[in-house]
Amino acid sequence: MSVRTEGLTLGAVSAIVEKKILTNKIRIYRPGEPVFNPDTGQYEPGPPVTIYEGPGAIFPTGGPSVVLHLAGQAYVDDTPSRYRLLTPLSAPVASREDTVAVVEAEDESAIGRTWRVIDIGETSTLSIVRTTWVDQNTQTAGA
């Protein structure tokens, strides 16, 4: 007896989402290895290492979050500007403190804005795209 399947597979849904929603070009990068500067005698940040450049989208989570304060200290990962980065499942998983930049977008005001990855990409047994929580770095227009 054969089992009849109806509707779309997760792979088919992923392809639709990637084509219709992940329409911006984003770059995920991290600091490169420190480089010794003989003139100063100090190690300086090396050139950034790009771990992904390709389709993606960034969405706000519905407005500023509530920053939780305990004994006068903000929770380490709480942020007033929480966003979600969506990337294809084929993209590498971003790590904490990686930087995300919008390289190309229909909305020109998004180009050049950056976000800090605050947690590695979420995963589940029913994933269509990868969701990664990020915090906006650039808070002013044209930054």
What share of residues are in beta strands?
35-45%
Low-confidence segments? none
State the distance separating the first and last CA atoms. Answer: 62 Å
| Class by alpha and beta content | mainly beta
Number of helices: 1
Instruction: Identify the overall geometry.
Output: elongated
Q: What is the mean predicted local confidence, pLDDT?
A: 83
Question: Could you characterize what this model shows?
Answer:
The chain is mainly β and about 140 residues long. It is built from 1 helix and 8 strands, in the order H-E-E-E-E-E-E-E-E. It has one helix spanning about 10-20; strands at about 25-35, 40-60, 70, 75, 80-85, 100-105, 115, 130-135. The strands form 2 sheets. It has a 6-stranded antiparallel β-barrel with strand order 1-2-5-8-7-6. A two-stranded antiparallel sheet has the order 3-4. Strand 3 and strand 4 (about 75) form a beta hairpin. It is elongated, with a radius of gyration of 19 Å. The chain starts with 9 loop residues before the first helix and ends in a 7-residue tail after the last strand. About 15% of the residues are buried.
